[in-house]
Design goal:
Layout: E1 2-5, E2 18-21, H1 22-27, H2 46-80, H3 98-101, E3 106-111, E4 118-125, E5 138-143, E6 150-155, E7 160-166, E8 174-179, E9 187-190, H4 195-204, E10 208-216, E11 219-227, E12 236-240, E13 249-258, E14 262-269, H5 278-295, H6 303-309, H7 313-321, H8 323-335, H9 341-356
Length: about 350
Amino acid sequence: LKLRLNIRPLPGAPRRTKQCHVHDIAGAMPRERPETPYTEMEPESKGKRCCKATGKVCGGACCVYLLVVVLMQAALYKWATLNCSAGALTDYEYPGGGVKDLVPSNSLITEQDPRWWGSSFIASPADKQGLPEGASAGVYYRTWGPLFWTVTYQDITSKETFVIRDRPLALGGSHKIMRCDGTGSVYVVTEGSHYFMNLIRELFGMYSSRVYNIWEDGTLVAISSKLGGSGQSQKQMIFRTPGSDVPFASSFLKDRHYHGHFDEWFVQVNEGSPLPNFVPNSVTVLMAFATAAMKNQTAAPGQMLELLEELPPAQHREVAAVPEVAAVVLDAQSVVAEKSQAVVEALEVVEAKEATVPDQHV
């Protein structure tokens, strides 16, 4: 059906007609109005604009900071492992431990003076009684990073043979141990499912305070246990296979005052060990670095008395017999709570006083 509509033109305009269909009329009907009436938008307040600008600035600063941290960590890791490459170890004889083990089966790990860029421990061969059998076989260097530490081992020819690094995204403590020549397995030492139980062990001061799993290319091959709860001075570790209770390797803190104030650890790996020697040594070095860092912090009150208790009884009598030396010791006890270095200085003064006192006074 067609309808003819006469549309009245505006005044002064020529009259015309328009023919349209019914559906055109339906389409020309006015649309429904929105439920909410139109309101004129108000301009944002100064506070809202300031908050948005501050958010953008903070977000950009966080992105820049994260980028700088990642780049710094990558640069420091590259610098620490600069000589850790397969090309540098082609046809290498690996002195000190051989191609498989890299380090001696029985070794002494001794703390060195820290440097501005990190700290170090030297590894020396030893017998089964923990006595040295020669000069050092290599050194462990720990390099700082904003995200994780990097530990590398250099032998006597300054060749880096393996590297230890943290895994910051893992649950609890976790480290990866890798050879620099690209051969052999990759070992991962991690708390994993033991994390929450380790917290309970630490809380109640259990003798076996921490347990770690050791994985070889994704296969569980050994379990490491830290013996000695919190507050105990004797630090030690054992290594055993998952299906056995008898350890195949062990390590312990042998001396806290080697050459005055350095730590010395003894690591022993039995024959037939399922792990190469450098794996138990690496785990021990990680604990050695952490223990030395705690010791080098500000000493607690009464540490001087603990040092005096470790002296032989003969030296106790000598100290008590000399009034000047006793006064120096008492003065050291009053300042040891503020500076740990005062302990070492007091012992040096004691030795100097003993050397100058006549024999009859002693």
